Amino acid sequence: MTQSVQAIDALLAEHADLERRLADPELHTNPAAARKAGRRFAQLAPIVAAYRKLESARGDLETARELATSDESFAAEVAELETRVAELDTQLTDMLAPRDPHDPDDIVLEVKSGEGGEESALFAADLARMYIRYAERRGWTVTVLDETTSDLGGYKDATLSIASKGDSPEGFGRG
């Protein structure tokens, strides 16, 4: 049994245990414990869903391979399913990769205009607005901590605080 299979099995068991605990009314008498269990359950749910999709695709691939020996029309489906299984496997591997411990932290973002005068300041203002809108769409709270504006309304520099409730703004710049 490989290490990744053991990790998946442990996560599946933890997910099932959390599902059972969250269904128990006793847990909800302690709001902090219920919130903690709910957050962990929400973290594990996409991983469990990706694993189940992968296992389903692997089963479909195995069936298609068996049927391809007697019916050539399944041969094309085998290649398609092999690609799908590889994509799902990569997706699951990415989800299981260790995260930076600072990912859930809030951030302070600083945008400076640099060389280029007023046009550079206008671009910096556009960039700051882009970050603000992106953060607001994600449900994060944005606070302008400091700003120095130019004569045309651009930013010579702007400092923003981006805070979240569980979803990570720390990793948002990594795409």
Automatic annotation (TrEMBL):
One of its GO terms (biological process) is translational termination. Keywords: Methylation. It comes from the Bacteria. Residues 66-170 form the Peptide chain release factor domain. This is PCRF domain protein. It comes from Mycobacterium xenopi 4042.
